[in-house]
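To: structure desk
From: M.T.
Subject: fold request, one chain
Message: Could you run this one when you get a chance? Sequence is below, nothing fancy, just the single chain.
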Amino acid sequence: MSDYSISAISPLNKRAQAQMDRLLEQEGIMRDKNLTYSAGMYDEDGVMVATGSIFENTLRCMAVSSEHRGEGLMAEIVSHLVQVQMERGNAHLFLYTKCDSAKFFAPLGFYEIARVEGRLVFMENRRDGFARYIDSLAHCKGDAPGAALVMNANPFTLGHQYLLDKTAKENDRVVLFVLSEDKSLVPFADRFAMVKAAAAKYPNVTVVPSGSYMISSATFPSYFLKDDLLVTRTHAELDATLFTSIAHALNLNCRYVGDEPFSQATNAYNQALSAVLPQAGIDLRIIPRAEEAGTPISASHVRQLIHDGRIEGIKPLVPDTTYEYLTSPAGEKAIRQIQAAGNVIHH
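Reply: Done. Structure tokens follow.
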């Protein structure tokens, strides 16, 4: 252990927050908006020489001052963050880093899962973590090629139902991945229950959680990428790289997505997927959005109606299974969270 001290950075400590921001900026990193714990390493004069942060089961925003490289400080920051994660009950950990920084984390027990060349490396602290996740999906594999859907379903609407129905009718076998990350107003357990209920009538559809290997736009790390378009492209390319491995293991040769008339970012995401997936022999099918009274159905609109206390107004926009769930005791938490939120128009 060096002579430096490590301590938590309080959100109320403006001096420490400013030091962290300056250190990150010097290393070309912006502070991630999704952080639940941050730590700083200080010299004897109280100057921050290294920092690192946590969001859920990931390590983020790690940097060492250029004046102190070669002193093993990154190892100490990572060790501290891992200890905090263990105390929080998170043993399976992930991190994202620049390509030229990945070499620093390999000796610290992190293994590369996938990379977007020149931009990002995705790593975990289990050598066989990704392989074990794919093995857990063995029941989804079939002899005939199948199709995939990836949904957040926040909540599950008739737009999602239309996409699911079309995919199920056009393919012998469908695997529907529900994003597991709990950054949506509708908690994962509720989203998963609604999707399962809606998919129950399709005998050829299997619904599974995405685990930690499909990353939502809400939690994708963008703190060392310079512009929104680059963030979207990198997210899509990482997603496509991970999905390709999963698809090949499960004999899935196409992925269906809905088009996005409201979001330029999602359109760019779909276009990036369409450029990457076919190179791996996977077809991407972009399906026009279902409409109600001439307007594309969106989960954002459904959340807005719920937020405004107009629960009856969602009936034309969601399947009966979703309405019944949200108006039952099981859906009370989701309703409360939506109604308490300041902004519900997001992905």
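Reply (cont.): The CA atoms of residues 22 and 30 lie 9 Å apart. Let me know if you need anything else for the meeting.
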